[in-house]
Amino acid sequence: MAAAAAAGLWRAEAPLGRGSSAAVYRARCLGDPRAPPAALKAFLPPARGEEEAEAEGGGGYGFRKERAALEELRGHRSIVTLYGMFTDYPSAQGPLCCLLLELLDISVSELLAHSSLHGCSMWITQHCARDVLEGLAFLHHRGYVHADLKPRNILWSAEEEGFKLIDFGLSFKEGIQDVKYIQTDGYRAPEAEVQNRLSKAGVQGGTECTSAIDLWSLGIVLLEMFSGMKLKHTVQSQEWRANSSAIIEHIFASKSVVNSAIPAYHLRDLLKSMLREDPQERATAAKALCSPFFSIPFAPHIEDLVMLPTPVLRLLNILSDTSLQNEEEFADIVDDIREECCKYGRVVSLFVPKENPGKGHVFVEYANAADSKAAQRALTGKSFDGKFVVATFYPLSAYKRGYLYQTML
Fold it and tell me: Same domain for 181 and 88?
């Protein structure tokens, strides 16, 4: 598949995912090899009647809906960027409506798979909570409801060093709900569950869902990140409906949860406020951002710095104390490291602290995250002066401030 969009000819290179109404591909600009890759979302032609296709957000209707939402919500750092749109004409399938989007990295769903049983670190949970709440506060202020917030729809941006919301195919303007079936099983708010059942039974009317459904979904996502457990069956149980607060208390008090050793009472209270049964009593995104949980400083774990790409690499196991003390040897080694690192992209800066914290670590800032990812793949495990290199990413914001984390568990 190749098509013109965003002032260039783009070609789909590899599939990234597929849903009931669209397929997503990694795309490359043929006219400019230096241009960063993008995500191409191709909406599949509806195979059923127009009414059913529209009810499920499929086909051309889904394209128009998502395009309108992304155009109106363009510019916020926690919402995926829309580059352009076009129509492609493959010979067999008929016309495909396509969106050209910012290409993001690992999803929260993948992070959960890595942290199964022990949960995500508090640093990454806090980072995700803040970024998504800021995005929700923005889109709710604009009158939008996302209506399908789940781990697969929250992705990490390596360039902007934050989490972003994607997939606005089920979104709607509050008070003008034009989609019958909303949210994904396991992340569906109680009022949305009732509405979906009424729709399936052909019953019209009832209370329309509000932005409060997004807070419920995020509350479940964050509870899964903290606990390391999938909670679909838990939130659908009679016990949850009878006393969800007690179940949340139990999860936070559980000795099987590593994070319980960290004072996480503020997170527990925040999640309780987001998971209240009555949507009118649920915290708004703006109010949730005022939680004391966001005033607690957390440091990333080493696993976080391996999984979340940034433009900065941190190289370990290269310099010995002897090398740090010998100025001539130190200068020669740093020159060799710089030369090696330049093979994978443009190096903006290179820094080696001679004192703790970070003593002997090599910090390499690349011009973009794509170069740092290429370097991380090539340098990890590489032998340098008889030592095997360990390469992780490092937060660009912390590096720019000259802040080096004291400990990485």
Answer: no
